[in-house]
Every structure is written in structure tokens, then in C-alpha cells.
Fold this sequence. Notes:
- By secondary structure, the chain is α/β, with parallel strands linked by helices.
- Helix content is 36%, strand content 14%.
- The chain is built from 9 helices and 7 strands; from the N terminus they run ααβαβααααββαβαββ.
- Strand 4 (212-216), helix 8 and strand 5 form a beta-alpha-beta unit.
- It has 2 domains: 25-75 and 199-310, Rossmann fold (3-Layer(aba) Sandwich); 83-179, Adenine-specific Methyltransferase, domain 2 (Orthogonal Bundle), CATH 1.10.1020.
- The structure holds S-adenosylmethionine.
- S-adenosylmethionine binds next to helix 3.
Amino acid sequence: xxxxxxxxxxxxxxxxxxxxxxxxxxxxxxxxxxxxxxxxxxxxxxxxxxxxxxxxxxxxxxxxxxxxxxxxxxxxxxxxxxxxxxxxxxxxxxxxxxxxxxxxxxxxxxxxxxxxxxxxxxxxxxxxxxxxxxxxxxxxxxxxxxxxxxxxxxxxxxxxxxxxxxxxxxxxxxxxxxxxxxxxxxxxxxxxxxxxxxxxxxxxxxxxxxxxxxxxxxxxxxxxxxxxxxxxxxxxxxxxxxxxxxxxxxxxxxxxxxxxxxxxxxxxxxxxxxxxxxxxxxxxxxxxxxxxxxxxxxxxxxxxxxxxxxxx
Length: 312
Ligand SMILES: C[S@@+](CC[C@H](N)C(=O)[O-])C[C@H]1O[C@@H](n2cnc3c(N)ncnc32)[C@H](O)[C@@H]1O
């Protein structure tokens, strides 16, 4: 890994604080290998990640490269609420989570289940009264609930039903890491120089120029009809959206920005499926190995190819 560290502009300790389907933690080494030369030479001023999820690449870049400012976004407003609350009121989240943690850990198995369901129903009940467009101090209560549910639910999934309700069952963990105060504070510090918004990937266009690096990690194109994990939110992301994103990628390319996009390789299932090779013709397409586990039953884990597309 080539690393250009500037102690004034890096936050080395901030790490992802959520478990998130499609998280890129295990691919960081490979992604790092294909990051733009301009980033490695300190010539990038702004990093944008419009499908941020748990932000594995965002935190990696903040820890290892010198970038002045960041913009992160996601269409999932609960996720964005969590980032914004950490930016504005980390201490309130830490104290609420520590209280939830000590309560949870003091209970037996049935007690933990009951407590999980209590927090989950409270979280779903309060959804109607939350204004996701306007930050308020009550957001930190919700952010603490999201962090708690994410750490104690089955598989660490964030899944909502058609009514937008969080519906993942409880997990069975002996000692889940419900709160890491040092990390949450480091995250909050990094978020002080980060613009955060909830919306479609295309909304980042206004910030992109030739000193920008944008990393796109959209929902995976399903490898087969039964593996279509796209339920991060209620919005679907099918081939039509993948191609809209391709058009957006080509548009941003013309600004001189550095770009990278990752997705599943359809050739894992069908060697004749050239969806991305055709869509991104003319760009560098790399195939890298990943251990992927997004099947909710958790038994389909194997090394498969992912693709990385870059314009560098
Ligand atoms: C593969 S995940 C990103 C994972 C992330 N790289 C990580 O390390 O956790 C894709 C993300 O895209 C978000 N998303 C789906 N449709 C979107 C859209 N139209 N615009 C922006 N974000 C979207 C989902 O909510 C999800 O968090």
C-alpha cells in the first residue's frame, strides 16, 4: 500500500462504526492498489462517496491520504441521520449507547431478546414523528438506537420492510461491541470536515471538479435472481439505475475528476454476461477477489470476483 500521510489533515483512528451489507472492508487492499495516482501524490482536495453505507473506503482514505474535505451521501435517510448526529452531538450518542450496553449485557438470553424488541418497536413507532430533512437534538436518540440495533441484530443487517420499518430479528452474541466511545469521537472529528446529505448519487455533481476523487459503490447487480440483496432502503436499484449511473460516471469523467466504481462481476454466474464490460467500455476494468457474504442465511460465502472500474 502506498501511503502519503499528512498529520495535519488525517484522522488515523476513525473506523467504520456500523456493520453494513456490501461493506468494503475486506477489499480495501485491492481498492487501495487502484486508487488514483493523483490521490497518492496529494493532488486531490475533495473526496466524495455518494453510496457511503458504512464508509469503509471513506475512513480508509481519511486515515491514509491527505484530503482537505469530504462529502458523503446515501439514499438511506436513517444512515445519514446517524452520520449527521455523530457530527453534531457525539457525546449524547456515546452516553445513551453506554447505558443501553450495560443494560443489555446485564440480561440473560431471553431478557436481551425482549430488550432488543423493545428498542426496535420504539424505533419503528417514532419513525413517523422524525423530520429527516431538519436536524434536531432528538436525532441522537435515534442514532443511538440504530447503532444498538445494528450491533445486536441478526447478521448486522439494516433492512426495512415496505413501510420503512426495521424488521431484522435479534442476533445471539455473547459480548457484542455495542459502543466504542474512542472510535465514535474520532468519527465525529472527521465528520467536522465532511458534508453529509441524504439523496440520490447524482446530487453530488455540483461539488465535482478536476481536484476531486469520487468512489461509487452502488448496490450490487444481482448475481442471480435469488441473491438480489438490494433492500438497504425502499428504493430499487436495477439495471436501469446501473446504466443511469454509468451515464453519470461518463459525465463526471469529462470534468477531469478521478473516478472509481465497484460492483459484483456478473461473470461469476454467467461467463457470457458482459454487462459492465459493455457499459464501461473504454475505461480500465479490473477483476479482484472478494469474500462476499450478503446472503441473509449466511451460508453462501465464497471467493468471487468483484469488478473495479477506474478512469485513471
Ligand atoms: C454496496 S452499499 C455501499 C457499501 C459501502 N461501500 C460500505 O463500505 O459499507 C450501497 C449503498 O447505496 C445506497 N443507495 C442505494 N441507492 C442509492 C441511490 N440512488 N443514491 C445513493 N445511494 C444509494 C444504499 O443505501 C447502500 O448504503
